Amino acid sequence: MRKIEARSKQHPLRLNVGFLLHQGVGTSREFDFDLQAVEVSEDVDLAFLRGVLNLTRISQGLYLQGRLDTQIGLECDRCLTDLQHPLSITPTELLYFPPQPAGDPALGVPETGILDLKPLLREYFLLGMPMHPLCRPDCKGLCPECGGNRNETVCEHLAAEVDSRLAVLKSLLPDS
Q: How confident is the model at residue 98 (pLDDT cuts 50, 70, 90)?
């Protein structure tokens, strides 16, 4: 097992897997990640990255599987406050060697044997993010009148007058 730490001179998501490519089918290697503040791409910054990825030599290349845990900074959809959202991914991919000419470059191991996991993991992290992140399930959002955060303050605005043309719709509400 190889422990990946932030002290590496190269990006911690670039792994030298050339030795695995020259091994027999079935040979595997675990890569243990315990990193602080990792930038996967311009749009994916992680507070930390912990977990294990296992690479196994197969006849077509390498089979990647594992689990990675992190927290990612997002913005609440309702009140726009910053939040740290926990995120776990379980990547499983066949990485071709030699790379397929018509295939996805992120799914191939280059001739150099240096595997860059950033594009592949970026996809997993983006797919794992919630579509509508909330700071809490009962978030009240922003006040439409003053823009204040309803989770922190109580607004006492006058009730807006209902347009007389729409007043008949109020009769359709169950509590009217």
A: confident
